[in-house]
Amino acid sequence: MGTALSLRDISKSFDGRPALADVSLDIEWGKVHALLGENGAGKSTLMNIAAGLYAQDEGRVFFGDTELTDNDPRHAKSLGIGMVHQHFKLVFPFTVAENVLLANPKGGYGRGLAETKRQIVEQSGKLGFALDPDAPVDSLSVAEQQRAEIIKVLLGGARLIILDEPTAVLTDEEAQALLSTMRVLAGQGNAVILVTHKLHEVPAYTDVVTVMRGGRKIETIASKEATPADLTKMMVGSALAEIKHRPATEHGVVLEVQDATLGRADGAGALNGLSMQVRGGEIYGVAGVGGNGQTELAAALIGLKSLESGTILMEGDNVTAADTRTLRRRGVAFVPAERMAYGLAEDMSVASNYAIAGVDRGEFGGPLWTRQGRIAATTQTAISQFEIAGAAPTTRAGLLSGGNAQKLVLARELREDARLLVVHSPTRGLDVRACAAVHRILMEARDRGAAIVLISEDLDEIFKISDRIGVINRGRIVGEFDAPADRHEVGALMVGHA
Amino acid sequence: MRQETAGSVPSVRHGVGRITLEVRQRLPAWKHGLYLATSLGVGLLISVLVLWASGVGPKGIYEEFVLYTFFNAKGLSNVLVECTPLILVGLSAALAFRVQFWNIGLEGQLILGGMGAAFVALNDYGPPEIRLWLMLAGALAGGALWTLVPLVLKLKLNVNEIISTLLLNYVAFQLLQDRIYGAWQAADRFPHSAQFDAGIERLSRIGFGDVGTGIYVALAAAVVVWWLIDRSRFGMFMTFVGSNARMSKAVGLPVTAVVAGTVLLSGALSGLAGFVVVAGQEYRLTAGFAGGYLFSGIVIAFLARNNPVAAVVVAFLLGGLYVGGQSIQVFYNLPAGVIDLLQAIVVMCVTASELFVRYRIIWRRQ
Amino acid sequence: MTLEFLVNWLASMPVAAAPLLLAALGLIISERAGVLNLSAEGLMLAGALAAAAFYQELGSNPWLGMLGAFLAGAALSVLFAVLVVVMRANQVVSGLAIVFFAIGLTSLLGTLGGWTDTALAGFSKLHVPVLSDIPVVGPVLFRQDPWVYLTVVLLVAVTWVLFRTNLGLKLRSVGHNPHAVDSMGIDVLGIRFAAVVVGGGIVGLAGGYLVLASAKIWVDEMTNGRGWIAIALVIFAGWHPWRALLGALIFGGIEALIPRVLASGAVLPQYYVLMTPYIATLVVLVWAAVNKRDLGAPRALGMPFVREDRR
């Protein structure tokens, strides 16, 4: 069949943080090639390099016989490389045909549009689905929008089709239809790359699978030879983390979630009958692959989103309908995943960011006068206590490095009387030292008797500090383990098809 | 005046090379100040050239805009008169912009403020001793009321406040015309209301030229706004909401209440500006008493970076421009619009300079 | 209401509606490309003064006057586009600055150039044999100045370009989702710049029309708020040229009606009537928001385009 795409020793880093290290990969014509890995494994970065969106720091890219030097999206497209992004590049009020025409203009508008419509109908027929070329993209389901993207890429002349996490936003049936479409495309002689973190998609629908972890390629094997156990092992690694098991505490139940639902039923990014219980003095690790309801769980627990059904009890009281303000007054604290979006006001000073919650509680004077001197002094204490490097009370928060910004958020959120701490991906993007510091801070809070919900996509982190682990998959907790838990059992539930 | 951007930005390709914009992570305060000062300087230089080309030479400019304006009792008193409402509209705009609410309705709110005061004065409501206070209350209420519709539309229906506040300016203007050509028209049948009663319904003079007690009102408002923003708990909330509303919600701040309170206060301050104009300068409602304050208010807030103390300074300087502009109208026969022109030139230069503040511009030859 | 009154009113409607429609068409082009354009009042003033100046200096040729109007609107828009497209300056502040820049500049240049307060002959009404003499229909449809008809031609042309050409498709997509368009290798900044400048020229024509076809004189600030009405009109029309025609006829009709009713001695709450364009626009905005209807606003309106990637 021959090699379509060949990536040689690709390395890439962002702001000095390596994202890809020496990755080599060959993609063949007529095959569906799965690129499997957890979030952050480097799959999307690698594919963006192939499609010309990013430039690699080192390494070479070949398409067929030609080397792609100084690649850009237009050049990649002209050669026949097409990528369907996770976030669709569609102009939403326009019709399918208008979107396709915009990407692939031809001749006059009227004739071009008519021709495009004909091609859409023809192409979608070949792929075995129907797509109305006159439908506004707005009115289509996510799966139909994705089909429009695929048609757009194909009519642009693509022969190598890269699908970036295409099934992440689809329901089961939609995903199956898409995967069948992929097989059809490969059958026509095209090369298809399926970027995914869903294990179960590999054996049935792909020919070859490459597993990536931590910016490196682990292995490439034929899909039919890959057992789920092997793939899980390759994806999550086998590094044994230092496990600090903590004996059961006498603290009572702080948080109880019963049958919580939120968002599109059976879809991605939704809660789907989630139940869990967390006691004081324990870290409850929520393990899972990104997009299985973690963000929604955090938002629901902190009152930023309200449940469609189900109950949240805090120390026995029903707080399902409570807003963030009320929950915070009850001792709920929140360390968000996107710390610059939800954790800090980056234009404001370290002192203001540290003190704002306390100001609200009246710790820094009454409503009429805020005691700036006391804020500065307290902030200075927090800076040394939490070892926030490079910060003075007057420093702009946006200037802190990731680790120090996170420490600042923790310093604000970890009050003595915090009862429930909702912590989402607290060490994302942090270096080893900062990670250790954040973990130490969380464990100290636990030892003071706080209940901690640690939501993280980093299994090492979950294993390192959790006392109990709940696996979230498709919006519900599908299994719970006391530490020390078996890494592969947890991994299997995470990537399994519940 | 913040626009959110992230990432680095390859933007324009030319035959000669490639210009790349990169979002600045840190810009030292002195450099920020330097950019601002340079752009102001360029704006003023262009303004001087425009005046020169129109027949006002450097000596004339110095005399009209500096000597007889700021270093002369008559001129200085006129500057204080002019800057009284300017301080208030500047504060009004600065407050609303602080919570990212684009209040383009300053002029409508100012009109309603003037009408609120006139409503009290013309109907002789309340005992004469407190009439002025009632007029002031009427002005605050009128201005705040005029932000209510855009505010509710924004918070409940997410209707763009730029458009709704802008449209209401013209509604307010027609309301005013309806009054002064109708029910409130003076007996002389000119398009203005009857005069407010001397000694009861007028702000008294403080004994320095035509400067009235309105200047105390404006300065008191500035102190209150400074206190509110810089010292009060509400002010800290306001700054957080304006800086990052999502984060403010996540830390449990009452975001909706903060926005609503700030915007109503912004409207009330514009209303107060209407009060100092009608009760302190015109002594009646006139057809055009609100003219020009929209742009000036925005200019002040913009140049003062929404800082209340700086707003007072900018308003004072702008007052000088108004006074100087009036005298070149008389002595050089230039039209009143020259003041608008000069303000616009300076603002354009400063908005343009923000590019250099926000981005690092890298130019690579190919 | 007599027939004569009605015919008289209807016949004066196009003259009131044409400048509003011209300005709205120009704004639609700019805003469809995603640039919020509050500068209309200023562009109209620039166009108006340039029309008066070109007319008076270049042998009283009204066509050259209109050329001047277009050039002035476009030139001022180059300044606006440099600010908001190239320098990514705040579109609200820049738009307002352009308005006041133009108020000052036109008033200054008008005085210095001596073009103020001089009555001009300008365009005269066409007289088409036979057709113009048809009762009722004649005066309303066939006794107008040439720009009434040219405005309709322009309306058709703008609609055609926006909705029936590849260029229009690109322009509209730049207004909705510049990032998607950029990823296809289309020059977002170039399209926005061109849209602002061409649109600005057409808004300038609206000012020229006021001087050469409607008022037949230049005086300071003679646009008298029509630029702001045009901004309201664009929203009222949901950024659609044909609905802008409808809106222009309604708003222009109101403008033309008031003096005629007052002259007939009838009592009219004229200032409340004059509010209607603004109130109607507000009502349309609220109606759309309440009913969750897409008014047609470009989705990226008002947002400067900055490419986000991590090369």
UniProtKB/TrEMBL annotation, chain A:
PROSITE patterns attached to this UniProt entry: ABC_TRANSPORTER_1, ABC_TRANSPORTER_2
Sorted UniProt keywords: ATP-binding, Nucleotide-binding
Source species, domain of life: Bacteria
Domain ABC transporter: 5-239, 255-497
GO molecular function annotation: ATP binding; ATP hydrolysis activity
Family annotation (SUPFAM superfamilies): P-loop containing nucleoside triphosphate hydrolases (SSF52540)
Family: Belongs to the ABC transporter superfamily.
Protein name: ABC transporter ATP-binding protein
The organism of origin for this protein: Microbaculum marinum
Lineage summary: Bacteria, Pseudomonadati, Pseudomonadota, Alphaproteobacteria, Hyphomicrobiales
UniProtKB/TrEMBL annotation, chain C:
Membrane topology recorded in Swiss-Prot or TrEMBL: Multi-pass membrane protein
A Gene Ontology molecular function term of the record: transmembrane transporter activity
Segments traversing the membrane: 6-28, 35-55, 67-86, 93-115, 146-163, 193-215, 227-251, 271-290
Entry annotated with the keyword Cell division: no
UniProt keyword list: Cell membrane, Membrane, Transmembrane, Transmembrane helix
Pfam family name, one: BPD_transp_2
GO cellular component, one term: plasma membrane
Top-level lineage group: Bacteria
CDD domains named in the record: TM_PBP1_transp_TpRbsC_like
Presence of the UniProt keyword Disulfide bond in the record: no
Subcellular location: Cell membrane
InterPro entries: ABC_transp_permease
The name this protein goes by in its record: ABC transporter permease
Organism: Microbaculum marinum
